[in-house]
Amino acid sequence: MNRSLSPTLEIRRSANGGRICCGNCGYDLAPEGRPWKQAAAVKELSTDETSLEGADDGAATVVRLFVCHGCAALLDSETAIPGDPFLDDVVES
Amino acid sequence: MIDPITFSIIRHRLFRVTDEAVITLKHVSGSAITNEGHDLLVGLYRADGSLLMGGLGFLNHMVYAAEACKVIIKRFSGAIDEDDIFLLNDPYTAAAHTSDIYLIAPIHYKGRLVAWSACFVHITDIGALNPGGFSPDSRDIYTEGFSSPGLKLVARGELRQDVFDTLLNMVRSPEMVALDMRSMIACNNVAKERMLELIEKYGYEAFDEAGRMLIEQSDETLRARIAELPRGRWQARQYMDVEDRTYRVCLTMVNDGERLTFDFTGSSAQADRPVNCTRSACFGAVLAPLFPLLCHDVIWNEGIIRRVSIITPDASVVSCRRPAPVSVATIGAIQSARIAACTALSKMLIASEKYRKEATALWHANSFAIFLFGRNQHKQNVIGIMTETFAGTGGSRTFADGVDVGGLITNPISRMANVETIEATFPVRYLFRRRRINSGGPGRYRGGTGLELAIVAHDSPDGGLHYVISGKGQKHAMTEGLSGGYPGSRNRFVWVHNVDGKSAATTALSFDELPDRKKDVSWGVYPLKSQDALYVASNGGGGYLDPLERNPEAVLSDVRNAVVSREAARAIYGTVIDNGLILDSAATAELRQALLSRRRKEANLG
Fold it and tell me: Which of B399, B483, B573 should be substituted to probe chain A, the one whose Cβ sees the most A Cβ atoms within 10 Å?
């Protein structure tokens, strides 16, 4: 039985096990219980761009936008200093 | 076993006891940080020091005060008498930082110790290197002011004047500190009186049984809730910028179906600047957002605390070793741990269809301490915090925008003083204070706005005053969005300084109208003299879901209310609003398609 993992992600189950998929188009991202962000397109914006602060004001963080390769739906976001690893969230059941 | 009606009555009476004690605390204290900002807490504890009923205020202090009670019980074993009141403020024993003083009072009924009440306020000054308690110049605990692992302040109802005078002798602004201390004594006295009335009316056995049942109820409810929520692990991260050095608080929260474990492995080594916190302070920090997010319908007591554990790397910013400095902890590592826990908890909630509506994007993630000090227009020495930090901002929810300047999720009663109150106490004048445009994190639901303000010196006998500023800095946007929502804006603190000696622009109504000599400041002591101004802008809350999904009518409303600019409406929300503030629906649909097409190209979809 399929299960919603978030408003933008779902787990689709088949005889071969569960897969984390885009909730909009079903694009396959990762096996259930595994990190999925590596399978998404990633766009980084300066956090100053997202609030229309001057681009040269010196924000040290970026917003990472995780976008579905299948339909370009925005799947998730996180704030990070460039180079820091993705925040990996794993739902086991 | 007591009957359910008596149980309910006792439960509600306990609520009322904490409510009345908080009112007492506010009314007796004269400091804005207490009676305006509500940087306080009152809690009731069982005879063994376990948390019975947490009141309102900064919620992490419920946990710290429980630990403080247990320390006092052990330290003063055999010497705890009726009507005593004990003081504790040592961070390496139980407190958050030295300026948060706990007064802890045993409650005896017919000669038997039956309960405790405890409260805290951030007192006006503690005698640290810098005025106000947040002491950015300190490099160890020894320079962070008076610190006690426990002393008896009131013995059998009599204030120990020698002890009281010794404390007041070590602080600036002793008259205000005395008022803070007396407010806590009054608070504990009121709590004790009401508790004794309750016990007298319903009997000690019923009171004790109700307390035991309340804790069991909370434990059982949270246990069942944890079991219902998805198992897994969720990560969060917060940054602190101190004098161009970055410190990380890294969190992995694990739900194993029985309990929640907050693992801070990967966090930075302890700093030589006072943003660190102790391990016990970190433990209380993770519970602060857990109370409202997972337990909004549960009594906040020991039953909840039992279900939570933490893992902290030794000698790190979240578990520092003495004598590392900690005076900025409450807006440094403690706040970072609180906010990281809020992120992880919300991501767990969002993974549950049943509990998704309880999730929230981040609220105020970057508190700041700006303590003004100097002589005021009445020629008195004054020290006081700019309470705007308590005004905070609301994170967006899964069904609604965040509340503009909406407070703190970890202090349900936080608020700021009005401008006139500050101007009546300090020789300053506000040039403006208002919601900050474009600060709310974009999303289908927008994060609440932060605020912006500017002050100048006014009517000062010394030509102005100074301020101490500290916190997590201003380089990082830290109010995370949720499920694709963008973060809110970051903080800004700007020292506007006319080096040619001219007066500051006392008629400026915006940041752009202030003079050009501007310098970002976030750590240290700075002047606010006749040629200076201070501009402060606070972060907005995080957004929820894709901003291109926001109802264009809601964007229009935001633009008309001056909380989103027309430029941001177009660039971020794909919403076209003309000069007359009229929505162009056709152009909006076209623009949103164009922005989605660009996103498709960037995602290599052609």
Answer: B483
